[in-house]
Design brief:
Layout (H helix, E strand, L loop, with lengths): L5 E4 L6 E9 L2 E9 L4 E7 L6 E7 L5 E3 L2 E6 L4 E9 L2 E6 L3 E5 L4 E4 L5 E3 L3 E5 H7 L2
Antiparallel strand pairs: 1-2, 1-5, 2-3, 3-4, 5-6, 7-8, 7-13, 8-9, 9-10, 10-11, 11-12
Length: about 140
Amino acid sequence: MRDIKFRGKTINGKKWIYGSYALQDKYHMISIDRNDGITKMLMFHSVIPETVGQFTGLKDINDIDIYEGDMCSYQSLFKREKGTIVYKNGAFKLKIGDNWFAYLDKKQEYQDMGASSKWNLDLEVIGYITEKKEKNK
């Protein structure tokens, strides 16, 4: 069974929250189940919409969960390449440059959209796409 979870950065931008995603009116929230053994409650945290990303079901070479919006690196035949994890047309993909995509699967292999061969990827999470935008401001 696939683990469906999301993450988002709190509206003050200081903390990542992991849990279920909810959108109510214009508020983007991540909810967390809290159970202290006596009481069970659901806590909602407002998050920055641009930071919300879904878990891909994959882990990187350092056993870190890979989420939509993560910037990842991998070793190609000739150099270290970088890409961003996106969700497009019903699948998580590694976007490299402006218009090249690859489908990701559980074995961390990618399927080149224009070729029939599969290549093994040793993905490593190196950041999150909004961190790059924040540094450029």
